[in-house]
Task: structure prediction
Amino acid sequence: MPKGRQDWADVHISSTALFFVLPLLLFYLFVPFYLLRFAALFLLLLLLGSRFYSEYLIRNIRLLRRDRDLRRFRGEWVQTELTVENHGRLPAFMLAAGDSPGDIAVFRQNRSLLSLRGCSRIFIPWQAYCSSRGIHTLGPALVRGSDPLGLFPFRARARETSRLVVYPSPGQIEVKTPGGLPLGNMITGNPLYEDLTRRRSLREYRSGDELRRINWKASAAHTGADRDTVILVNEYEAAIAFPMVIFLNLDPYEYGLRKREFYFERSIEGAAALCLMTNRDRQELGIILYHPHGKAPLTFIPPQARTLIPILERLAAITRPHEAPPEHSAPELPRENVFSDMYPSPRIRISVQMMLKEGKRLPYGTRLFYVGPERSREEYAVLDSLKRSHLFLEYLILDEKALEESMPGNVRRYQMKEAGYAVI
Result:
């Protein structure tokens, strides 16, 4: 694209005034009175000059967006900026530029009336309120203008848009830290998890210290001819690792009909809260999305570093329950030989079967966190078999009444607290 030229998606210039060109031309050619011919020629040149002025502005006005991608949490305001540039020599009068907020309902100052001198620019900042989770499109931007006489008004729509990713609202959750594995990133006070690659400090030798802890160079530096012999030993950082994998149950028909959409959305927010907590603890993060009505019934992102943003974007793109097909039961997935002969009960739901199947593939010491509706006692007993694979099992249950029921003591269940906009 040449410099100064906008790649418009749609341009419309009013051609109503052009209907007067032919009559004025005939009037100029065939009327014998010179004064009338001069007036016709003047009006004809005025029309053609105004048309040229509008075409010139369209070719030299450019709309630019400051941000191609925007990311915010639900309940936050997002600010973006639209730049209107005039690359031509002629000034632009009576311009009305504005940005389309897409399906964002609440916005501020997204339109402006302005005039631009030649080779100048102006910035139009505006704000939008992220009221709903999802992936939204801001734009395209629109500009309306005309020649100085207003004979040929034009309307142009830019092709460029911005993507706004609204993450779930960050909730507050407090869970206990499991035992974990040594050689991690989270500092702990247990000396059994000392990492010999992270020396913390030096101290004097004590009875019972291992000889491999002695720092001979530092001891020799602190021992001289006129000094007493000092033996220094190394102290190391104690750190643990507990990679987190979240199993998010998104089958809408396992949620109660009453407040289905509310608890469905709260499950997604609970998964986002666990992701943020794991990221703060500098632990590896993964997720298993069981969404039978989505494009992929099962999505698995293995636990590894720097997966927070991809997981939050997956959570933002999840369709809501009312967008699911109107069937009365979830579609059947292909059943494999998941259970042993100890658990042949057909009352075990498919989501539990998939969690059991995928959980057996997780690495040693993984923290597997279930997020979704309440499970039955029989399902808790089935999932408890994953502990044989040396996994830490925990559950985030959002229904307060379900948590009031007593469960076996080895089932660790939590609930996300209401905070911020969720309380209102």
Observations:
- The first strand starts at residue 8 and ends at 13.
- Helices lie at 21-30, 34-60, 216-221, 260-280, 308-316, 350-359, 377-383, 400-404.
- Confidence is low (pLDDT under 50) at residues 324-344, 420-424.
- Residues 59 and 325 are 47 Å apart (CA to CA).
